[in-house]
Every structure is written in structure tokens, then in C-alpha cells.
Amino acid sequence: MVEDRRxxxxxxxxxxxxxxxxxxxxxxILVSWNLLMTLCNIGLVSLPIDEFGYDLSNxxxxxxxVTFLSTDTTDENPYTKDYDCKEYAADLKKNARSLGYRIRVxxxxxxxxxxEYKSLMEQHFNVTSSGPGFxxxxxxxYIMDEGxxxxxxxxxxEILNCTIGxx
Length: 167
What we know:
By secondary structure, the chain is of the alpha+beta class. It is about 50% helix and about 15% strand.
């Protein structure tokens, strides 16, 4: 009886250590991943290739982003019910990728983010958005020498010096 009790206590303590070590291992992996992604985002570390085999990098200067946008023709595509903001953003990302640049697609959802986006576009570019505005898709790019994430409107190549939603 006493032996069984000692075995149960020992097993419980050992299983507690197993849970602790497993939790610590998971935390270390998550912290390491987040650190790697942060270093990649600010340009200190670059991942050698993306999932399609392209060597991608952030834009070194604002001028390199402006040059890319001025030569890219995504904004000249006609807007249709089958080719809307999602396709503009995906094509801009694909075209940037083909030149070795990293651009992210970013959905704007919710009334708060849409109101913020529309307000910024009106303030900076005198662009008034029409329609109910339930959501939208834009792109984000990181400019290394400024240490700044910018929002790109792929339908018109406007650059906002912020990301929508305060992130």
C-alpha cells in the first residue's frame, strides 16, 4: 500500500516535469520564431528564399519602392467584379516577388479600420472612396533605411507612411 502511494506520487511529479519541459520547449520555439521574423522584418536577417525559390528582400530605400511602383502596371488593370482589390494586391505582390522584393497583402476589415483608411486616403491624396466599404485589401512593404512599414494602395500606387490598424 505504501509502495503504491510512493509510485503514484513519483509518477505525478515526473509527469509535472514533463509538462513543464514541454511547455518550456514550446515557448523557446515561439520566441525564437518571433525573434527571427522581427529581424527579417527590419532587414537585419533575410531568409534566403521564399516558398517559390525567390530570394526576397525588403525595399532598401523609398526611392526603390517608388521606382518599382512606377514601372509596375498593376494599377492600370481595369476594375471589374472579377478583378477587384484582392487581385490588385495579389498581382502587386507577385510582380514584386518576381523582382526579388517582399510585399505583403493586408486585408482591411471592420468599420474602424475602414474609417481610418478612408480618412487617411482623403487627407493625403484627396481620394474619396465610394461604396459601403465593408472591407478592402492593400499591400504593406518595409523600407529598410527608414525603418518604416508603409501601406500601398495597389489600385493607384499611393503610399501611406503607416499601416492601417496601428500595427
